[in-house]
Structure formats: structure tokens, C-alpha cells
Write a structure and sequence with these properties.
Distance between the termini: 25 Å
Radius of gyration: 20 Å
Bound molecules: zinc ion
Order of helices and strands: EEEEEEHEHEHEHEHEHEHEEEHHEEEE
Oligomer: single chain
CATH superfamily of the largest domain: Metal-dependent hydrolases
CATH topology of the largest domain: TIM Barrel
Helix content: 25-40%
CATH class of the largest domain: Alpha Beta
Length: about 375
């Protein structure tokens, strides 16, 4: 039950220098110089650092754990995610979303899939709802879902500015956001309204209207896919400067987009990145005709993390964007996104070239030498 990580360069995310980290019963017990090895304990495991880097596991706040999409018909419904597709890229906490298809995929399946991944070893949460408004729920409304169902931390992804949205009115968006907020207050959760922002020319104007015309607090709103266009990025920078948060979907545009937002003065603490893993990435022509489909991967968060460091961010800064900011935003700062005493032992070890070596989730080794060693129930190793 005891693990002692000796002589690692620890990023907590702040750079702590070379330290030892003691893990007991799935949690970080102590971080110090030269922790002596407890004698006479047969269960003690010592892992020596030898120049490697130890950091908190990534938090991926937008994953279609159940699969998603289907915009090209039934044969294009994307598959469920497996445990090792998540862990092998350093992610130890995910938030599951339903997405476009709230008809053939249900919230009941979503939370059960989240429970399965939790039993297999990682930490999971979900949003109630889907693209459409009125949005699906398990109880009679969003508020009750967030209060009563442990996995739900808010509502989303609700689609705005998209030809696949249900064109929600401002009143409908406001009601969803307030139900998530009050559900969060009574349920002891963040109570987030998470918005899929499509390519429509309004961008996040509906959210700016909501903030101007209602009492919805800015910290309860989280738009994603914000790297879609320069206009959206500029709106995101504006929201972040107002005290809001913006989420950027990982991938080929994300690194440049984040650097742009920082240059334009968006506070680093208000930017997060998520993978859209196992979601569909449908392509439409300018007339809205479906022309093809890709599938998102959790891998992209790791790729963007490396790119951000190569582009000049410190490891500490990049770690904020892939986990520490999410932990603070969702109210998990004591458990997640940090290497500190009392936090869950979600530990990511990389070599000096930022290649993933080991991933530990709640004190259990899931990945070794870059390869998964723990697999989901029906995965073939
Ligand atoms: Zn989306």
C-alpha cells in the first residue's frame, strides 16, 4: 500500500525541484527531501526517479466515453472509449458527455459507463443533458439530476451557434444555467453549464447576452470548441478577461490558439483544454451537406501539452491548462490536478523529453514504460 517515489523532479504544478513523494493508500502522504524508507514493510515499493519528471495526471473535461456522433448515419456512430485509451495518454480524470445524439444514447448508459471506468481505476464525472433543449435528464430536470446523481457536475454539452442545435432561446439557456447552478449549490458541486459552440456566426454572443440580461454567474458557464475561428478566440479572450473560463478542443489548432489567447491577455488560469475524445468530428460543406467524419482522441491533450512546452510555456504553465485549472474550476483542488499532501495519487511520470513513462491513478500503476498494463474488462491486452 506504500509507494515511495525517490529523487524525481516534481512539478506540483509549480516546480518543486528534486523531491521524494510518499504515497499511502492511494493518496499523496508527503513530499519532502530524502524521505527515509520505512523499514520492515513488505508492501513498500520504491520507484527511483533518475532524472525523470513527476507531475499530476491530466484532467480531460470533455470526452464522449460512450461514443457519439452519427452525423453520417448509423454506421458513423463512434465507439465507446476503453480504459487504456484514456490512461496511456496521462489522463486520470475524465468528464463524460453525451453530445449530438441524445436519442440512441442515454444518460443512464453514460453514468453507467462512467461508473465502469471508475471501477477499472480512473476518476470520472459526467454532465447531464445533451445538445438539444429541452435537454434529456434522468430525474425530472437538470437541477434534480445535479443534486441527486453523484456523477453529474452540471449540464452539457448544450449546443449553441450550430446547425445541429435546437436554437435555444435566451430564456431556455438561462433556465438550464440556473438549474445547473442551484443543483450545484444544493449538491455540493460546481454546477456548470457547458456549451458546445458551433461554427455559427453568433459564436458565444448568447452567453454574453445571458450575462448582460440575467443573474447567471459567469463562473457557472463553460463554452468549448473555442479554437474554431479567430472570432471565437477573440470572444473567448473577452470572456476570460471578464472572469469567465474558456475551453479549447485539443488538436492541430489548439497550441497556436492558446498562445494567441495568452498574447491577447487572457489569464492563464481561465484557459483549459479537452480532447473531445471518441466524439465525431464531422465535416460539412458550406451548404451543410455531410462530407466525412473523423473521431476525436484523448491523445491530442498530451500532444498539445508537449507542443505548449516546446513553444516556450513552462511545464508548470502547461500543467495548469491540462489539469490544474480544471481542478480549481470544478472544485476538486484538494484532490486533483496537484501533487500535494492529501491529494489523490494521480501521478504522471515523463522522461526529460516529455515522453510518457508511467501513469498512476489513485496509487495504482496503469501505464509502465509508456504502455498500458491495466486494461478495461473487455479490452484485449
Ligand atoms: Zn461538441
Amino acid at each position: 500500500m506504500l509507494k515511495l517515489f525517490k529523487n524525481f523532479r516534481v512539478y506540483a504544478p509549480e516546480d518543486l525541484g528534486i523531491k521524494d513523494v510518499l504515497v499511502a493508500d492511494g493518496r499523496i502522504a508527503e513530499i519532502a527531501d530524502n524521505i527515509p524508507e520505512p523499514q520492515g514493510l513488505t508492501s513498500l515499493q520504491v520507484i527511483s526517479g533518475e532524472g525523470r519528471i513527476l507531475m499530476p495526471g491530466f484532467i480531460d473535461g470533455h470526452v464522449h466515453i460512450l461514443g457519439g456522433g452519427g452525423e453520417g448515419g448509423p454506421a458513423t456512430r463512434t465507439p465507446e472509449i476503453t480504459l487504456s485509451e484514456i490512461t496511456r495518454w496521462g489522463v486520470t480524470t475524465v468528464i463524460g458527455v453525451l453530445g449530438t445524439d441524445g436519442t440512441t444514447r442515454s444518460l443512464e448508459s453514460l453514468i453507467t459507463k462512467a461508473k465502469a471506468l471508475e471501477l477499472e481505476g480512473i476518476t470520472t464525472y459526467c454532465y447531464t443533458g445533451a445538445y438539444e433543449v429541452p435537454t434529456p435528464t434522468i430525474t425530472k430536470n437538470v437541477r434534480d439530476d445535479v443534486i441527486l446523481i453523484e456523477k453529474f457536475i452540471g449540464v452539457g454539452e448544450v449546443a449553441i451557434s450550430d446547425h445541429r442545435s435546437s436554437m435555444p432561446s435566451l430564456a431556455e439557456l438561462g433556465r438550464l444555467a440556473m438549474e445547473a447552478r442551484v443543483g450545484g449549490l444544493l449538491g455540493g458541486k460546481a454546477g456548470i453549464a457547458h456549451f458546445h459552440v458551433g461554427p455559427g456566426e453568433e459564436g458565444i454572443n448568447p452567453l454574453f447576452d445571458l450575462l448582460a440580461q440575467s443573474d447567471v454567474p459567469i463562473q457557472n458557464l463553460l463554452p468549448t470548441h473555442m479554437a474554431r475561428s479567430k472570432m471565437l478566440l477573440d470572444q473567448g479572450v473577452c470572456l476570460a478577461k471578464m472572469g469567465g473560463h474558456m475551453d479549447i478542443t485539443a488538436g492541430s489548432k489548439a497550441t497556436e490558439a492558446i498562445l494567441y489567447c495568452l498574447k491577447e491577455g487572457a489569464p492563464l488560469e481561465r484557459i483549459t483544454i479537452s480532447s473531445d475524445g471518441n466524439g465525431s468530428l464531422p465535416r460539412f460543406d458550406e451548404k451543410g451537406n455531410y462530407i466525412g467524419l473523423g473521431v476525436g482522441s484523448v491523445e491530442t491533450v498530451y500532444r498539445n501539452f508537449v507542443e505548449l512546452v516546446q513553444a516556450g510555456l513552462s511545464i508548470s504553465e502547461a500543467l495548469h491548462i491540462v489539469g490544474h485549472n480544471q481542478a480549481r474550476f470544478f472544485g476538486w483542488a484538494d484532490q486533483k490536478g496537484s501533487i500535494k499532501a492529501g491529494a489523490d495519487a494521480d501521478i504522471l511520470i515523463m522522461d526529460e523529453n516529455l515522453q510518457i513513462d508511467q501513469v498512476w491513478a489513485k496509487g495504482r500503476k496503469m501505464v509502465d514504460k509508456g504502455r498500458p498494463i491495466v486494461f478495461g474488462t473487455f479490452e484485449k491486452p
